[in-house]
Design a protein that fits this description.
It is a single chain. The chain has helices at residues 42-60, 75-91, 144-154, 213-218; strands at residues 35-40, 65-71, 98-109, 112-120, 132-140, 160-169, 181-186, 191-192, 208-211. With 221 residues, the protein is α/β, with parallel strands linked by helices. The protein has a single domain, classed as Rossmann fold. The strands form 2 sheets. Strands 4-3-2-5-6-7 form a 6-stranded mixed β-sheet, with helices on both faces. The chain binds hypoxanthine (HPA) and magnesium ion. Magnesium ion binds next to loops. Residues 46-198 form the Phosphoribosyltransferase domain. This is Hypoxanthine phosphoribosyltransferase. It is found in: Cytoplasm. Its main location: cytoplasm.
Length: 221
């Protein structure tokens, strides 16, 4: 083949996408002045997630699967994705029996990734042995976190590992790590909302937005 078909299946947001004016959508008043624009409206995230659920069902359906949700930012995407897979299991000829587990990774302070990556709650993942595993992540940028996590999970010898990432950021130093299921490929902006945080703020925002410079200053630690 001349091209990788999957490449053309990416929902790509170009560098020149300015986002939507904040006046066009509702968002909590406590964040006024802290945001630049609505980058991906909540409804669009939901629609894309519905399609990802179908793709996952097509690939993994009818086999027991362990969903491994990467906290904290992954909780909303994971919950919505699992919800849509459940709907497909109820309403189609295929089912995807799932158990859901949680691990926590932490590496960001302000908008910078720190070197030391902590995996919390992943000491014993022996329940993954021989299972199909679906890792659910909110965002992949350098891929460092994902690479570390994959190595860790592989050590427990699952039958298959798939990764679903809501967002993949186009960064210059990507380690070549690309999830099997990608919601959106986005430019190198720091985004918040839909459980993505800036120092724990903005998780309570339903759209994915770009944070403003004054927002960064206000919540800096
Ligand atoms: N927003 C929030 N958390 C993140 C981001 C981002 O753009 N990139 C990596 N972690
Ligand atoms: Mg974070």
């Amino acid at each position: 083949m001349y091209f990788d078909l999957n490449y053309y299946m990416i929902c790509k947001i170009n560098d020149d996408w300015p986002g939507y004016s904040l006046d066009l959508f509702n968002y909590p008043k406590h964040y006024s002045g802290d945001l630049e624009c609505v980058y991906i409206p909540h409804g669009v995230i939901m629609d894309r997630t519905e399609r990802l659920a179908r793709n996952i069902m097509d690939d993994l359906g009818d086999h027991d699967t362990v969903v491994l949700c990467v906290l904290k930012a992954g909780y909303q995407f994971c919950a919505d994705l699992v919800e849509r897979i459940k709907a497909l299991s109820r309403n189609s000829d295929h089912t995807l029996p799932m158990s859901v587990n949680f691990i926590r990774l932490k590496s960001y302070v302000n908008d910078q990734s720190t070197e030391d990556l902590h995996i919390i709650g992943a000491e014993d993942l022996s329940f993954l042995t021989g299972k199909n595993v679906l890792i659910v992540e909110a965002i992949v940028d350098t891929g460092k976190t994902m690479t570390t996590l994959l190595k860790h999970v592989e050590a427990f010898r699952p039958k298959m590992i798939k990764v679903a990432g809501l967002l993949v950021k186009r960064v210059p130093n990507n380690s070549g790590c690309f999830p099997d299921y990608v919601g959106f490929e986005i430019p190198n902006h720091f985004v918040v909302g839909y459980a993505l945080d800036y120092n724990e703020y903005f998780r309570d925002l339903n759209h994915i937005c770009v944070i403003s410079e004054s927002g960064k200053l206000k919540y800096k630690v």
